[in-house]
């Protein structure tokens, strides 16, 4: 099958760029794939982080990516379409995660639908963006109604898609596990020496945004510390005001047990933080798909997550982690305490290894192939 894939890749950073690049790698094993990457992603004044460029020394990249699409240059959108028409593919795949890409993807998909024989598949990382507004939902419908096929990563996003495109031809495929950051597989004790931590270590990893619910994990810390000694690592670039979190930590008098690393972690250092930790906590308020959960599983780390989005579907409660109620510091604290007092790490790691196939990239590639 001939496929044209559109989306971000190196030199851009972040989960969508990693996902699209790894998807390209896996699709090429079975199909003829052309990948049209981005030349410019977001204007600097629109991007909430420090930069959207990946400064890792070990980038996740693949040969053959054509960096063509400039988000702010409509001529590049036309150029992408012309290249697609020359390839004459069976399928064009586009990611969908944020309404910023409405004009670009609407223009390209409209031209493809009108002037080629190709079918269009949207991989919906989020049908509607996190912290979405009414205009986001309008944009989503405006673009996604051009799709022939859809892949979602959770039941919640399946429901969201059906509200936007009621007759959508859709398959659910779990977000695959990320194991590409396991450079050298750092031992736990060595990682802890490097980070100067010891004892019980809990990890929160990824961009800090309101929907991630970090404040509830911080509020859970005094409850946990009343029973046992724990260090919380908060690792990721803040996309909201960090001062509110620092204030909360100070008020709760837990500054010596919470360490904040406010930066985007380069690929070569990701494994250090996961290796040093015992368990990853995702106290999300919403989250239709989670690359962080699958990143944790790629490092064989149990996950404590809230009962939102994909988390209750990917975390086998009591087997690979715990699922708790959102916006409840007490339930988060209880789960962390149960994890340590029950000596669950070895048991959960064994179950994570047994679940590998369920979250393999093969399942996603098979789902894509099944449409045609």
Describe the model:
With 372 residues, the chain is α/β, with parallel strands linked by helices. It has 2 domains: 2-172, Glycogen Phosphorylase B (Rossmann fold), CATH 3.40.50.2000; 188-357, Glycogen Phosphorylase B (Rossmann fold, 3-Layer(aba) Sandwich), CATH 3.40.50. The chain is 40% helix and 18% strand. It is built from 14 helices and 13 strands. It has helices spanning 15-27, 74-87, 102-115, 134-144, 155-164, 188-195, 214-225, 242-251, 267-276, 291-298, 311-314, 329-341, 345-354, 361-371, and strands spanning 2-6, 32-40, 65-70, 91-96, 119-124, 149-152, 170-172, 200-205, 230-235, 258-261, 279-282, 303-306, 321-324. The strands form 2 sheets. A 7-stranded parallel sheet has the order 3-2-1-4-5-6-7, sandwiched between helices. α2 packs parallel to α3 (102-115). The longest helix has 14 residues, at 74-87. It is globular and about 65 Å long. The mean pLDDT is 94.
Show the helix and strand layout:
Blueprint: E1 2-6, H1 15-27, E2 32-40, E3 65-70, H2 74-87, E4 91-96, H3 102-115, E5 119-124, H4 134-144, E6 149-152, H5 155-164, E7 170-172, H6 188-195, E8 200-205, H7 214-225, E9 230-235, H8 242-251, E10 258-261, H9 267-276, E11 279-282, H10 291-298, E12 303-306, H11 311-314, E13 321-324, H12 329-341, H13 345-354, H14 361-371
Parallel strand pairs: 1-2, 1-4, 2-3, 4-5, 5-6, 6-7, 8-9, 8-11, 9-10, 11-12, 12-13
Helix pairs in contact: 2-3, 3-4, 6-9, 7-12
